[in-house]
Amino acid sequence: MHAFSLLITLGSMLASAMAAPAPIEDTLETTSIPLEDTLETDFVTLAARDNIAVVTAYNGDTCNGGNSQFTVVGGGNRCVPFSNVRSISVSGNGCVVRTWSGNNCAGSSAGPAYGRCTSVLFASVSVTC
Fold this sequence. Notes:
Residues 1-19 form the signal peptide. The protein is an alpha+beta fold. Helices cover 21% and strands 32% of the residues. The two termini are 23 Å apart.
């Protein structure tokens, strides 16, 4: 039971830390931060559960170029604005993910497919788990 609580706490901390990504620039540099084996294993276990969405937005048309990512776990709801993005990929399951024409999750919307790259111009993404 303690391990389950730890997984939920780590997932919540990760979701909070990644919930408001910075705008994407054309020359985005990424830095890899090594995870300890136990944390990586716990995250993989958490990702296999229901009600998680990992959203990655790209400035290229085919999920290429600079990217920004956020994660929503459990009963979370998020509206995340983006700029200069042209495609999106979503992994996980059990959450409703929508792209929006307005930067406040308003206007025209579309639902990107899980596990595939969706080429679409959008200004914000909503996730409801």
